[in-house]
Amino acid sequence: MEKNDKFFLPELPYGYKDLEPYISKEQLTIHHQKHHQAYVTGANAIFEKLENSRKDNTDIDVKSTLKELSFHVGGYILHSLFWKNLAPANQNKNPEGALAETLNKEFGSLEKFKKEFSQTALSVEGSGWAALTFEKELGKPLIMQIEKHNANIYPTLEIILVLDVWEHAYYLDYKNDRLKFIEAFWNIINWEEVNKRLEKIK
Is residue 170 part of a domain? Predict the structure, then answer.
């Protein structure tokens, strides 16, 4: 993920056409190559700014700089997780193993989990994300909303499933109909990857 103290745009684990008809080639290409790349570029520029200020012993506006850095780093990390928890529709299977057991125990069924997660994604104010995390001390999954990339986050909890509901993730395909995009999302989840993330945490 990181080389030479800089971020690099990760390659997708599938082709740009492979998520159709749920995410078009054009939508996915722009999202990955333009928007994700923007967070890579933004974070690297601030890393350089911080490095130069330390070398030259010059003052910078630390508050605004670190706020901007958290925005870009958050965008970089969340997008990297998002691409990997997607897969072509013909590979989509229902959760199995520890993931299925965990979701059924906490939410009662997969359908109840999907309903609650979908409502979470739909009700994010403005731009943001819906995410499924796992709290190890309690041994239970928690759903959270993330506004922008860096607000309303449960500290230290690792994300096992994430959905981008910024308009740049779906506008070409679904215009302003976020609900249709959320419904499409359930057809292209890589449940095997999500289960691996959960098993690693547990």
Answer: yes
